[in-house]
């Protein structure tokens, strides 16, 4: 079954492990920025850069003149990687990488993420480092109990606008499943 929000990437739930879902994501395109900030501060620096891109303020010259804007989608993802904190905006479903306006801001990179299987745990409330680590630990424990391995860094996924009340927020932690 595809994801429930029309603005998020398509995925199929493969299996449920208690609070954890195993999902197969179909390919999707992201605009991303790498910032040299601690995890709690990275979104504050990266969000305005990515927001300017999707709103057409730093798109390719011809696209900006035409007033081309990309829809804001969910989730906004973040993970630690080479060079710092990677923050990504998911672009609208069906967006082809070749059709996306080229960013003028060299900090913005575009890329297509291929099909991948992810283990996901979701929770509500405001983001905190303690809550993130608590849910990441629960996710890893469930995967170990099921005999499943993961690869790469955990991904923090935010689905809601900053003004959304804490009890209505959807936040997830993703781990990429290792090939079986």
Walk across the major sheet and give the strand order.
Answer: 1-2-7-9-8-4-5-3-6
Number of helices: 3
Measured by DSSP, the beta-strand proportion falls in 35-45%
Radius of gyration: 16 Å
Number of strands: 9
Percentage of residues in helical conformation = 10-25%
Molecular shape: globular
Distance between the termini: 22 Å
Q: List low-pLDDT spans.
A: 1-5
Count of the domains: 2
The major sheet is characterized as:
9 strands, antiparallel
Please state the structural category: alpha+beta
Topology pattern, helix = H, strand = E: EEEHHEEEEHEE
What's the mean pLDDT score?
A: 88
Please, could you describe this protein's structure?
This protein has a 9-stranded antiparallel beta sheet with strand order 1-2-7-9-8-4-5-3-6, covered by helices on one side. About 30% of the residues are buried. About 20% of the residues lie in helices and about 35% in strands. It has 2 domains: about 10-25 and about 115-175, no CATH class; about 30-75 and about 80-115. With about 180 residues, it is α+β, with helices and mostly antiparallel strands. It has helices at about 40-55, 60-65, 130-145, and strands spanning about 10-15, 20-25, 30-35, 75-80, 85-90, 110-115, 115-125, 150-160, 170-175.
